[in-house]
Amino acid sequence: MATIAIENVRKTYPGGIEVIKGLDLSIAAGELVVLVGPSGCGKSTLLRMIAGLESITAGEIAIGGRVVNNLEPAERDIAMVFQNYALYPHMSVRGNLEYGLKNRGTPRAEIDARVKEAARILEIEPFLDRKPRQLSGGQRQRVAMGRAIVRKPQAFLFDEPLSNLDAKLRGHMRVEIRRLQRTLGTTLVYVTHDQLEAMTLADKLVVMNGGAIEQQGSPLELYGDPQTLFVAGFMGSPGMNLIDVAQLRAAGATLPDAVPAGTGVIGIRPEDVFLEAGRVDGPAITLPARIEAVEMVGAESLAYAAVGGLSQSVVLRIPGAWTGHADTAADLHLPLTRLHCFSKETGRKVPLSAPALAA
Ligand SMILES: Nc1ncnc2c1ncn2[C@@H]1O[C@H](COP(=O)(O)OP(=O)(O)OP(=O)(O)O)[C@@H](O)[C@H]1O
Ligand SMILES: [Mg+2]
C-alpha cells in the first residue's frame, strides 16, 4: 500500500481545453477514495494520469513518496481496472491472470501461488480453464480484479468497474470489493456514478466538478453538510430539494430570522420534510402545499408536493406505504435544524446563526 499525493495537477489535452484545473488531493496509504462528479468533469483523466496512461501537463503526482510524473505505467506499480474489463479473449482465465506476472519475469512457483490465492479470494477457481466469453459479467469482473490483485501493486485504480452489471450483482460485488480492499489493505481510488457505491465504499468521498474538487470528506459529511449548492444537488437520490427564496417570498411566505441574510436558496432533504407538525420539535418553516403524486418505491414512498409560487415540486420521503390520498392539501414542515442555506451568487453555504435557531 502507498500514499498518493496529487499537487496542483493540470491537464490540457491537445486542442487546448484545460480539463483538470490545478487539483490537489492527498490519499493515505490503505485508504479507499471514491471520485464522483458529472460526466466529463475529469474523473477518468485524473485516474489515467495517476496510472501513467495520460501525461501530466503541470503539477506533480507522487506514489509512495516517489514522484512519478515521468515514469512509465509499468514502473508505477499500480493496477487499473476498467469498466469494460479488457480481458484477453483468446486466453483462459488462468492465462489472463498470469499474463502480467509472466511479462515481469516472475518465477513460475510464485505465479502459481499468487494465481491460486487470487482465485480463492475471488471465488473463480472453477473457471480458471474457461475463456472470458464463457463467463457471466460478474465472473469476468472478478477475473479483471484478479488480474489486478495478483500483481500486489501499491495501489488499485478502478474506473466504474461495476457499471455493466445488474443491480443485484452490483450489490454483491460492492460488498466483495470493500472486503477485498480491507483484507489486502491496498490503497484504492474508485470512480463511480452510483450513489450507493459512493456512500457505502468510501473512506473519503471526493466530489469533482469541471476539473476541480468541489468538496471532499467522509460520505456522511458530504451528505449531511454540503458546502456548495453543487454538492447539495449532486449527493443523494432523490436529491436535496433546492428552493428559490425569491419565489417563496413572491408567493407571500416569510422566512424566520434564523435564515441568514444573503440566502438565495434553501435546501432540505426529502427525508427532512414532514407532513405532521408533531414529528418536528423546534422551529420550522411551514409551507401550505398540495400533494400531487405519490410513488411507492419498496420500503418507502416518495411524495411530490406543489407549493404555491415554486416552479418545482418539493419531494418528501415517507417511510412505508403512503396511506393518504394524492391530490390533497397538506402543510409541509421544514425543521430549521435540517435546513441548508446557500448564496445564489457564490453557490456557497451560508451558515445558520445558532442564537437565532435557539430563539
Ligand atoms: N483524449 C482526449 N482528447 C481530448 N479531450 C479529451 C480526451 N479524453 C477526454 N477528453 C475530455 O476531457 C474531459 C474530461 O473527460 P473524462 O473522461 O476525464 O471525464 P469523466 O469525468 O471520466 O466522465 P464520465 O463520467 O463520462 O466517464 C471531457 O470534456 C472530455 O471530452
Ligand atoms: Mg470516465
Describe what you observe in this structure.
The protein has 359 residues and is of the alpha+beta class. It has two domains: 221 residues, P-loop containing nucleotide triphosphate hydrolases (Rossmann fold); 120 residues, OB fold (Dihydrolipoamide Acetyltransferase, E2P) (Beta Barrel). The chain is built from ten helices and 17 strands. The N and C termini lie far apart (51 Å). The mean pLDDT is 92. The chain binds adenosine-5'-triphosphate (ATP) and magnesium ion. The site of adenosine-5'-triphosphate has 11 residues, from helix 1. It comes from Pseudochelatococcus lubricantis.
What is the topology?
Blueprint: E1 4-12, E2 18-27, E3 32-36, H1 43-51, E4 58-63, E5 66-67, E6 78-81, H2 93-103, H3 108-122, H4 137-149, E7 155-159, H5 167-184, E8 187-191, H6 195-201, E9 204-209, E10 212-217, H7 219-224, H8 229-234, E11 241-244, H9 245-250, E12 265-268, E13 284-296, E14 300-307, E15 314-319, E16 328-335, E17 340-342, H10 354-358
Parallel strand pairs: 3-8, 3-9, 6-7, 7-8
Antiparallel strand pairs: 1-2, 1-4, 4-5, 9-10, 11-12, 12-17, 13-14, 13-16, 14-15
Helix pairs in contact: 2-3, 2-4, 3-4
Residues 43-44 line the site of magnesium ion.
How far apart are the first and last residues' alpha carbons, in Å? 51 Å
How many domain regions? 2
The computed structural class is alpha+beta
- How many strand segments? 17
* SSE order, one letter for each helix or strand: EEEHEEEHHHEHEHEEHHEHEEEEEEH
DSSP helix count?
Answer: 10
Percent helix: 25-40%
Examine the secondary-structure arrangement and name the CATH architecture of the largest domain: 3-Layer(aba) Sandwich
Spatial strand arrangement across the major sheet: 6-7-8-3-9-10
